[in-house]
Amino acid sequence: MEVSVTLFGGLRHYLPAGSTFNKCRISVDDGASLEALLQRVPIPEDKPYLVILNDEKVTPQQYAGITIRAEDEVVLLPPIKGG
């Protein structure tokens, strides 16, 4: 199945080939975890980011326990800094 993934800010540099602007579709097996999906996005381990799944923030501790569905919308955001 394919899942829609959107990357914002500097994370767009890590979109897979063939992506349009800041969106891509990533293929994963049916029943795959969010963790498995995120491993398909080539963001370096030292780059922090936030994960939003269907408008809800997800913590790294939850990644392995969440099963992805084809209709899910995954958004990756760089940390927001203010001042």
Description of the structure:
By secondary structure, the protein is mainly β. It has a single domain (2-77), classed as Ubiquitin-like (UB roll) (Roll), CATH 3.10.20.30. 7% of the residues lie in helices and 28% in strands. It has one helix spanning 34-39; strands at 2-7, 23-27, 50-53, 56-58, 73-77. The chain has a 5-stranded mixed β-sheet with strand order 2-1-5-3-4, with no helix packed on it. Strand 3 and strand 4 form a beta hairpin. The mean pLDDT is 92.
Concise account of the structure shown:
It is built from one helix and five strands. The chain is mainly β and 83 residues long.
CATH class term: Alpha Beta
What is the fold named in CATH at topology level? Ubiquitin-like (UB roll)
Q: What's the β-strand tally?
A: 5
First CA to last CA: what distance?
41 Å
Major sheet: arrangement of strands: 2-1-5-3-4
The helix-and-strand class reads mainly beta
Report the CATH architecture.
Roll
Radius of gyration: 12 Å
> Topology as H/E string?
EEHEEE
CATH superfamily: Beta-grasp domain
Amount of beta strand? 25-35%
Question: What is the subunit organization of this protein?
Answer: single chain
Helical residue percent band: under 10%
Largest sheet, described in full?
5 strands, mixed
Features:
1 helix, 5-stranded mixed beta sheet, 5 strands, mainly beta, 28% strand, 83 residues, Ubiquitin-like (UB roll)
